[in-house]
Write a structure and sequence with these properties.
By secondary structure, this protein is α+β, with helices and mostly antiparallel strands. It is built from 18 helices and 16 strands. The chain has helices at residues 10-28, 30-50, 60-65, 76-87, 119-124, 144-156, 162-174, 179-192, 202-211, 213-219, 236-245, 309-326, 346-357, 362-367, 394-399, 415-424, 443-450, 457-476; strands at residues 7-9, 67-73, 92-98, 109-115, 128-134, 176-178, 200-201, 228-231, 267-272, 277-282, 288-293, 298-303, 373-377, 392-393, 403-407, 480-481. Keywords: Dioxygenase, Iron, Oxidoreductase.
Length: 482
């Protein structure tokens, strides 16, 4: 008689992991629970008002369950280990984000995000964890004595137990774990990101905090922790208004693209301000006292359509134009009716810039080669005439109503927006010696640290779009031209 062992697969492990972290974080930061409640209410109201259009970028069930977490680690060793933990949940490193020069404040970290990459896995549960590593070797932030002490401090701590790492490696290799081992993996992984009760060395923390509050939160504490857990909302401006009505202090503005009448692109984010949390400190005389730190905040996001490489280049140029107009380096455009943009908000100027440069429809963004969408044939629709070379033009198929374009959701992050939220939650800009050279980091260096390739988010979305075009071409038995 043979027995079979039922595995808890990576998809279920990931979903359970997201829920476990949410329950833990909600207990640690009660305002997070309020944020989730308001997000759910906004999503339900938007779905009721907009119907099917509200689910263009994901089902209501997916959007409401969706979360991204954020953690910070202090060394390549810790980053490699956390990559092993997330691999157990079917989460892969995607994107390289350099936050060191993304804001005026001192944010000495480089980041990647661990997430599913297969569209079916994303549809099941798109849990992501934005993971930042302290760039200890960047001399612009850390002098030699501080760097040496930081390296010793981080090397002496152990964020992840040998048991957790062994279970994670096994789950990644086998695609899951038997029930008992799966439960233990989830318990150990969740506990690894729980806020530590061990006293913080006040003098060391204060020294790092003068350089960067983010550095202190990474290298001045004995363990890592969930820095924020982020729900997704369908109308971030309405959420901002409702949170403010409840008396919760939000950061000054929504980060990322402006709200406008055209398609949402990439990602919009905001947060409530970091709250004082009780912590214990060890003083210089060895005594332990109670104090408070403000390092964790409640972030929320609204996701839009993924852009192609050309679309992302255009987006970056639009952001630069907004900055230049607000700085008075270029005049406002006469068609906007605003010649002096220096007195206007970033969002107001961005709205004018968006209207001048971007198409007003998702399909037009895709057909212009700026955004990523999946194409599908409308059953029973009449096809347009073929081109002279016997191919079909995608634009002609869409114009004829024979093909529709479904937007591909942007699953990733924006370094400037992330740094903007960090900066909005800091009370001190910190220090950075801009006369010195920074340490070199890129996706290849993070890949070497992790022992696996950091994937390119634009390539992933573009490949997804191309697969749908190839499938359409096979269905029509004719080449499709863009």
């Amino acid at each position: 008689m043979t027995t079979t062992t039922t595995l808890v697969r990576g998809t279920e492990l990931r979903a359970r992991f997201a829920v476990a972290l949410a329950e833990m974080y909600g207990a640690e930061v009660p305002a997070y629970t309020t944020l989730v409640e308001v997000s759910r209410a906004v999503n339900a109201d938007v779905a009721a008002a907009r119907g099917a259009d509200a689910e263009r970028l994901g089902s209501l069930e997916r959007v409401t369950a969706e979360r991204h977490g954020a953690i910070r680690v202090g060394s390549p060793r810790e980053l490699e280990q956390v990559g092993r933990v997330f691999a157990a949940f079917g989460m892969h490193p995607v994107g390289f984000y350099d936050l060191r020069d993304a804001s005026a404040s001192s944010v000495p970290v480089v980041s990647t995000a661990f997430r599913p990459v297969d569209p079916a896995e994303l549809a099941e549960n798109p849990f992501r964890v934005f993971t930042s590593m302290l760039a200890v070797d960047d001399a612009r932030f850390f002098d030699a004595p501080t760097r040496q002490r930081l390296e010793r401090f981080v090397e002496e701590r152990h964020l992840f137990s040998d048991e957790l790492l062994a279970l994670a490696d096994r789950a990644a290799a086998e695609g899951g774990l038997p029930t008992a081992e799966a439960d233990e993996l989830l318990r150990l992984a969740t506990d690894a990101f729980r806020l530590s009760t061990e006293p913080v060395d006040r003098a060391w923390y204060t020294h790092l905090e003068k350089i960067s509050a983010v550095a202190a939160d990474i290298g001045g504490v004995p363990a890592t922790h969930i820095n924020h857990l982020t729900p997704r909302v369908l109308d971030i401006d309405e959420l901002y208004r409702r949170m403010s009505e409840r008396g919760i202090t939000m950061i000054d503005e929504v980060q990322g693209p402006p709200a406008w009448e055209g398609p949402d692109v990439l990602l919009r984010q905001t947060s409530f301000r970091a709250l004082a949390e009780e912590r214990t400190f060890r003083e210089a005389d060895g005594s332990v006292v109670t104090g408070a730190l403000r390092v964790r905040f409640g972030e929320v996001e609204q996701r839009g359509i993924a852009l192609t490489a050309a679309g992302r280049d255009l987006y970056d140029r639009l952001v630069a134009e907004v900055d230049a107009r607000r700085a008075g380096l270029v005049p406002g455009h006469e068609s906007d009716g605003h010649e002096n943009d220096s007195q206007r908000t970033r969002v107001e100027v961005a709205l004018d810039v968006w209207r001048r440069h971007l198409p007003r429809a998702e399909a037009d963004l895709v057909l212009a080669g700026l955004a990523c969408g999946e194409v599908r044939l409308v059953e029973g629709a009449l096809l347009p005439a073929c081109e002279a070379d016997r191919s079909f033009s995608l634009a002609a198929l869409v114009e004829a109503g024979a093909v529709v374009v479904d937007p591909i959701v942007y699953e990733d992050f924006l370094p400037r927006s992330a740094a903007g939220i960090f900066q909005s939650n800091l009370t001190d800009a910190g220090t950075k010696d801009v006369e010195l050279d920074g340490a070199d980091y890129d996706a290849d260096r993070l890949s070497a640290i992790l022992g696996k390739t950091v994937l390119d988010p634009i390539e992933l979305a573009t490949a997804q779009m191309q697969r749908s075009v190839d499938a359409l071409s096979a269905q029509l038995k004719t080449p499709i031209t863009h």
